[in-house]
Amino acid sequence: QVQLVESGGGLVQAGGSLRLSCAASGFTFSYYAMGWFRQAPGKEREFVARITGTSSLTYYADSVKGRFTISRDNAKNTMYLRMNSLKPEDTAVYYCAQESVRTGRYEYWGQGTQVTVSS
């Protein structure tokens, strides 16, 4: 079965950096586009970044463009999110998700990893 496991979250000061990882199993990782999302307390889940299966295309929310970098290592079945110049408003639970080839929707999600940025 599809499993997505995030790691790498934690507490960091504003201006700092973190790298999140998403370990995938149960499917042919390189076939699927993947995404990162986040949900802050009291807010709806929002899109952060997306990467195609071959890493040829990436997309970012305007709020993270220029600060975050999405990448993947298909040999390791792992996706990453490098987060630089973190701001308190980046505080959220971060989720990775698999994009369905058939529907284009994100159908499988990890359990999330907490990122807290202190001011």
Silhouette: globular
The biggest sheet amounts to: 7 strands, mixed
Strand fraction: over 45%
Structural class, from secondary structure content?
A: mainly beta
Chain-averaged pLDDT: 97
Name the helicity range.
under 10%
Number of strands: 11
Draw up the topology in text.
Layout: E1 3-7, E2 10-13, E3 18-25, E4 34-39, E5 46-51, E6 58-60, E7 68-73, E8 78-83, E9 92-99, E10 106-109, E11 113-118
Parallel strand pairs: 2-11
Antiparallel strand pairs: 1-3, 3-8, 4-5, 4-9, 5-6, 7-8, 9-10, 9-11
Protein model, in words:
- The chain has strands spanning 3-7, 10-13, 18-25, 34-39, 46-51, 58-60, 68-73, 78-83, 92-99, 106-109, 113-118.
- By secondary structure, it is mainly beta.
- The strands form two sheets. Strands 2, 4, 5, 6, 9, 10 and 11 form a seven-stranded mixed β-sheet that branches. It has a four-stranded antiparallel β-sheet with strand order 1-3-8-7, with no helix packed on it.
- The protein starts with a strand and ends with a strand.
Write a concise keyword list for the protein shown above.
mainly beta, seven-stranded mixed sheet, four-stranded antiparallel sheet, 11 strands
